[in-house]
Amino acid sequence: MDKRKLKQGFAYFLLLYFALAIGFYFIGGEQLQFSSSDAVSQSPEAVSSVGELTQGTAVTESFTLSSDTLDKISLLFGTYGRDNTGSLLVRILDSEENVLFRQSIDVSKLSDNGLFDIRPDSPLISEKGKRLALEITSADGASGNAVTVLTGAPSDLGDTVLTVNGQTQPLVLCLTVYGSSRLLIGRFYFVFAAAVGLLLLLLFADALKKQKSGKSSLILNAVSAVVRYRFLLSQLVIRDFKAKYKRSVLGVVWSLLNPLITMMVQYVIFSRLFRSDIDNFPVYLLTGIVFFNFFSEATTMSLVSITSNASLITKVYVPKYIFPVSRALSSSINLLISMIPLLLVSIIMRTPITPAILLLPFGILCMIAFCTGLALMLSAFMVFFRDTQFLWNIMIMLWMYATPIFYPVSIIPDRFMVFYKLNPLYHFIRFNRIVILQGVSPEPRAYLYCLVFALGSLTVGTLIFKKVQDWFVINL
Length: 476
What we know:
InterPro entries: ABC2_TM, ABC2_TM_bact-type. By secondary structure, the chain is α+β, with helices and mostly antiparallel strands. Helices cover about 50% and strands about 15% of the residues. It contains 15 helices and 15 strands. β12 and β13 (about 165-170) form a beta hairpin. The two termini are about 35 Å apart.
């Protein structure tokens, strides 16, 4: 390899890395800075109320915030089973009685023994352990035409104190506080990014040093393999892609129609017959179909990638890993084509397109790496055990039902979620759904799960394939 070109390639890679790292920081937004919102204090069971909130009544509950942000407060109201009119003023105050948030509530919209969410336009950022107060006052309530706030016995609410018109009460409001905490990766993001960049620089410097001394290096071997066999790999990918649509009238159009037709059939079944209440169900369903179809196609095609090329492998020296990798990459072309109807359906369903869509390549690349690792394993197993293809067809069917393609994850009991999350496709599809449907970056943990499953599959697949590939010729 030309040393000058190698240096240029490493330099371009480092520049690309730092550009992506800076861009990701701004696209990541709050999801990179704070954990997902969760209940940081639980509401007690309702046993009483503060009485009618008539004109001049002031209800104040002070509490300690156990998170770095306050995202919303769910409060339990009572209407005495009647239709009331008027309004309430709700304020959130800090310990210095500065107003952090205020909201007017139309009492006619409150339901008896129903929760009402007090939600600021953006999370209130505070310090963990800081005292806040929720104040509720009535401007025009009258006896017989007023609502109330339900109360319960204090349990795990700590030093929560409730006062009504300045008088301390033995009970506390039935409210649940939702908040999130600051993430370390958000605080030290650029330190972490710089450390990874420095590590890459040291690895590249070591590779250049080994090249100069003629020693072997994993990075040099990988770069050499890509440079040496890129033409062969590209030809195999093109051949596999064309072979799929050989003598087909519509050809590549099937890559567009297949996920759309599948989505329409399943949409009718699950949204009409089984009454699915998933928000934006067409996009939710199509996202699952597109990525699971890619997984199924890439692994199934790769199964026979070695056995179907036996005549070539036994006569000419060709790196054997080229064949399963080419099958996975040719399926990746279909995946990219299938993204077109997915984005079109998203636009038709008025799904917001935000800068977070730029994170989609990460989810796609992780999915491709995961399938490539499986392709290497399955193609190796197929050489020695020809029943692998039949077992894998059964496995694909079971895997489909174990993946949230057409049903919500919420139907899975909490006690089974630990095992459910061992499914790599759950994390890949969830990542891409958050980006497409919610228009935000997934939480940092989602990136970690995707990377672990992708690199884990690729590493294990490579090691297994490398260990047994010398026995292929004997068993073909």
